[in-house]
Amino acid sequence: MSEKLAKAIQFISKASLPESNLAIILGSGLGSFADHLKDSVEIQCDQIPYYPISTVEGHDGKLVVGYWKETPVIAVKGRTHYYEGYNIKQVTFIVRILAALGVKLLIVTNAAGGISQHFKPGDLMLITDHINMMFSNPLIGPLDYGEPRFPDMSCPYSKKYQELAETVAVSKKIDLKRGILYVSTGPSYETRSEVKMIGKIGAEAVSMSTVPEVIAANHAGLAVIGISCITNLATGINRSPLSHEEVTRTADRVRTKFIYLISGIIEQLKRSKDF
Q1: What helix, strand, coil percent values describe the chain, rounded to 5?
Q2: Which residues, including other chains, have CB under 8 Å from residue 168's CB and lie 6 or more apart?
Q3: Which end of the chain is more exposed for a tag (fewer CB within 10 A), N or C?
Q4: 244 tagged catalytic
Q5: Annotation says 218 is catalytic
Q6: Of 134, 131, 138, 124, nearest to 177 (Cα)?
Q7: 3-state SS, residue 100
Q8: Which domain holds residue 99?
Q9: Is 260 in the active site?
Q10: Is 209 a catalytic residue?
């Protein structure tokens, strides 16, 4: 364990948190899920040693640890983004913290722009794979967290848990789309020509986060479920200019459906005795 990680864990451990195998990183406008956890403990991220602080609206900068019914969950309301000026290893520091705390399954969520003509704002998309166009990787440089040097990424989002999420969606009558996520650095939205290119190379949605955490999670041996909230249609598909306000408004509008899906996944995990 690196010195920075050891100090972060030492600080977090003072809170006497329940052990949890499950964590969820909450995307823009989706943080309200954490408010539904019972007997929760909040840790301000700006107090955790070496934790990069989020500066983006919709990310409160907290770790919330509590129970969904009887299942302990760590909810991250403190995601940081590459475009905020942090290096890529800082962006994924939270994943290293979660792995050190014993997390085995990470649910990553985000707000994304829809590329597919079959999507509309408010849809939820199960991420089946991704295309990393950040031109960076959190594993570049010294092996601060050990081997492997060349982790396999042939299935970064667990097929087993994709099937579980889809089973839950069907049972709850949620129209859960499937798709490949394209991720760039941002923070500017894509041009019309870029959106055309993204569609042609096979992506259904576009975001500015998630992939760094997924790479680090796979390196650390965590299983991953990825869910995008389609908060807007991308440039050239959407007829009006894009804004972060639109993103957060749409995410807020679909939060009930989002929480319904996540809660169902947690309940199914408990029934399957994975947790």
Answers
A1: 35, 25, 40
A2: 174, 261, 264, 265, 267, 268
A3: N
A4: yes
A5: no
A6: 124
A7: helix
A8: 3-271
A9: no
A10: yes
